[in-house]
Design a protein that fits this description.
13 helices; transmembrane helix; Acyltransferase_3; globular; mainly alpha; acyltransferase activity, transferring groups other than amino-acyl groups
Length: 344
């Protein structure tokens, strides 16, 4: 359990590629296909996150350990992506395609630009504040020494989601909007909770209450189809039902140890670069396609091939020259500092 789980890396890679291809073909009238279901790749990311974060918490000794682990994993890559995206936007501004200010760049570097009322420089960043809020909830559970009860607390929060979206939305629309604006995790928490339950199944075996919990998370996900404002813009309810069902079935197969055969060098490579690819791809690929089509008359297929290849090169460079070295440096530094304090 202390090693990276190969099938989860494959899931990450598939989810990242789905989101990339969704954005690559979105609003492109001359694209040979439109991968609308790729919009749901973030749902798979959220289930994975619930699984992985609960795994991490179960081998974490303190709140600071968890904070350092998450910071070293997320921020160096994110800072690199934000900086490159800001540079690309500055070039786009010179070409007449976009605008950017120093304040927007600084706010985005915090990863909390949502609460500053500042736009995301890259459209994909909206999921990161949802992830950070989930980390906060998990940290609270760790701090209060309640990890053993998080399954049940998670059920309570899912019940809050049902009441909020089912009753408050109708009875007090302004309150509903204010709550969701202040705590957008309530649009997606059931997916993280499903990941926690799948982790429990993976480590402790099937339990009827956990199966009921996963069924509830699945049902709530479908119930929120037209209430959380993204997937319903691109997919019908039945299409969304299919993708949601596929994701939950894949996780059932994974926790039953029946999916190891899907792992190969390609899927594991995609999993390795998935975070870098996710945070660098959107503005960059759309920008490259736009410039190549507008300024040089390229077809969508030609422009998107170059944009996608360049995004993979960038993501690979960020992974191997920033993510891996910084991750190792920061964690070794923290381990040494922690050891020195313990010997005082």
């Amino acid at each position: 359990m202390h090693q990276r789980l190969a099938t989860l890396d494959t899931f990450r890679g598939v989810a990242a590629l789905a989101v990339v291809l969704f954005h690559l073909t979105l609003h492109q009238y001359d694209a040979p296909f439109h991968l609308n279901w790729g919009a749901t790749g973030v749902d798979l990311f959220f289930i994975i996150s619930g699984f992985v974060i609960f795994l991490t918490l179960n081998k974490t000794q303190s709140v600071l350990d968890f904070v350092v682990a998450r910071f070293s994993r997320l921020y160096p890559v994110y800072w690199a992506a934000v900086t490159l995206t800001a540079l690309f936007m500055a070039i786009g501004s010179w070409l007449g395609y976009s605008q950017i200010s120093l304040g927007e760049y600084i706010a985005n570097m915090t990863m909390f630009q949502y609460y500053f009322g500042i736009r995301d420089l890259d459209g994909s960043y909206w999921t990161l504040i949802v992830e950070m809020l989930f980390y906060g909830v998990m940290l609270l559970g760790l701090w209060l020494n309640q990890l053993g009860r998080l399954e049940w607390y998670g059920l309570g929060l899912v019940m809050v989601q049902i009441i909020l979206h089912g009753w408050v939305r109708v009875a007090a629309p302004s309150v509903y909007e204010a709550i969701l604006k202040g705590f957008p995790l309530l649009n997606h928490f059931q997916l993280f909770w499903a990941g926690i339950l799948f982790y429990k199944m993976f480590t402790q075996g099937y339990d009827r209450w956990r199966l009921v919990g996963v069924a509830i998370a699945y049902g709530v996900t479908l119930y929120l189809y037209d209430k959380t404002g993204r997937s319903n813009l691109f997919l019908s309810f039945w299409e969304y039902s299919v993708t949601t069902t596929v994701y939950f079935v894949l996780f059932f197969l994974f926790v039953s140890h029946k999916l190891e055969w899907i792992n190969n060098r390609v899927t594991l490579y995609l999993g390795t670069i998935s975070y870098s690819l996710y945070v660098i791809h959107h503005y960059f690929t759309v920008g490259v396609i736009t410039v190549l089509k507008d300024k040089f008359g390229w077809s969508f297929v030609q422009a998107s091939t170059v944009a996608l290849a360049a995004a993979f090169v960038l993501a690979t460079a960020i992974t191997y020259f920033i993510e891996k070295p910084s991750l190792q440096y920061l964690r070794v530094w923290y381990k040494n500092r922690k050891a020195s304090y313990q010997t005082l």
